[in-house]
Structures are given as C-alpha cells and as structure tokens.
Design brief:
CATH topology: Rossmann fold
CATH architecture: 3-Layer(aba) Sandwich
Strand order of the largest sheet: 1-2
Shape: globular
Largest sheet: 2 strands, antiparallel
Number of strands: 2
Length: 153
C-alpha cells in the first residue's frame, strides 16, 4: 500500500509541471526508489552509528493506534509522554480522520506493477523489519494487513 500510495502521490505532484503523467511508468520508478531505500535501511541495520538508537515505527501501528505508537517512540528515546500530548494526538485524529484525506483506492495494475512480483522484491525488507503484508480487495484497493510478515517465508 505504501508503494502504491507513493506512486499516486508522485503522479499528483508532477501533474502541475508537465502535460502528461504516465502512471504506468511511475510504478516501476517508485519501486526502484523504494527498493533502494529498503536495501539501505537493511544495510545500515539498527547500529548505524547514529547518536540516538534507531526507532522503527510501522505505518499500520501509527494509523491504527497513534497515541500508543507515539508513546512508544517517546519511551524509546527516554522522553516523558504527557497526557496533554496524548490529548493533542486524539484531538488531531478526531478532527482529521485518515489524515484528512479520506479513503483511497490503490491498484498495482494502474501503476504498471504486478502484486506478486512487488511482494517478492520487498520480502527481505518485510521479514527484516516484521512488516505485515497487506491484502488487496477484488476492486484492487489495498486493505489492512491480514498476515504477519513472518508468514511470508
């Protein structure tokens, strides 16, 4: 879903600056970019020499339980998480469900991608970071995870 969302976002951002945007060309382009980033994250590992330890946040956790997820980030870095912070997050989410953007329908085919091939490319990253696979509905939209990444092996 992240890959498809990024391909669609790239399409939207390019439209004002060009006469033609080809979604079929953007999918493979975004795949290469995200695959490169995924490989770099795996190569760096958790001990990449940063001053602070790396904190991994799964998107599904952030959107399904933002308060607990952000609280976990604070805890990871040894920061206090105050009730007013939780209240501010709750208030924002209530005012802007789904980030204020509503529902999206994504399709691998719209962006020139094959779902099985893309899952195979990203499988090492998903396994390394425990990212759950998302299913696609019969209409082609990506849905919430149905299985853990560990089940992909």
């Amino acid at each position: 879903k992240v890959l498809l969302s990024q391909a669609q976002l790239t399409e939207v951002l390019r439209r004002p600056f060009t006469r033609h945007v080809d979604p079929l060309a953007l999918g493979p382009l975004e795949t290469r970019r995200w695959l490169d980033g995924a490989q770099r994250m795996m190569d760096a590992g958790d001990d990449a020499g940063f001053v602070e330890p790396v904190c991994h946040v799964h998107h599904i956790d952030l959107v399904s339980d933002p308060v607990s997820t952000v609280e976990g980030v604070y805890r990871h870095f040894g920061l206090p998480f105050e009730s007013r912070t939780a209240a501010a997050i709750d208030s924002y989410v209530a005012a802007k469900p789904k980030g204020g953007y509503g529902d999206h329908q994504y399709s691998f085919e719209t962006h020139g991608l094959d779902e099985a091939r893309e899952r195979s490319k990203f499988r090492p990253y998903m396994m390394r970071f425990g990212v759950a696979a998302e299913t696609t509905s019969s209409r082609g939209g990506a849905n919430m995870p149905m299985q853990s990444a560990r089940a992909l092996s």
